[in-house]
TrEMBL record:
Short name of any one Pfam family annotated for the protein: YCII
Entries under SUPFAM superfamilies matching the protein: Dimeric alpha+beta barrel
Organism, as annotated: Actinomycetospora straminea
Gene3D superfamilies: Dimeric alpha+beta barrel (3.30.70.1060)
Name used for this protein in its record: YciI family protein
UniProt cross-references to PANTHER family, sorted A to Z: BLL7163 PROTEIN (PTHR35174:SF4), BLL7171 PROTEIN-RELATED (PTHR35174)
Family indicated by similarity: Belongs to the YciI family.
Domain YCII-related: 1-111
Amino acid sequence: MRYMLIMSAPESMVVGGADAPSPEEAFEAMGRYNTDLVDAGVLLAAEGLAPSADGFVVNHDGEQPAVTDGPFTEAKELVAGFWILEVASREEAVQWARRCPIGPGVRLEVRRIAELADLTDIAPAEVLDAEATLRRRIAEREQV
């Protein structure tokens, strides 16, 4: 099973922000956590995200998609980073999420990543076949 751990925080709590812990402490704690994930063989991906000032939103509400540049001052919390884990069970995902070294004011949302099998009763066979082909192509690209 694959799970995504999504870290959300006010931008002031993110490393370098006004209310954040010292960068040395934060990077050291995250480094230990990420090393533990790699050593356990469960980490598939993990990244921190740049500040919202470097981002943009694409809104599809109108006739043409509208692009709005960051920062996103109206947001109370922003996605600050993520991990993707491959674990044996929901309980294992819970254990890893509990170990994540985030502090007060930071939230970790954990979501199971849908597998093709989750879509068999919903999507038409040709859609499932096309999705399986795309996933094979991605896997082949990663092996190069």
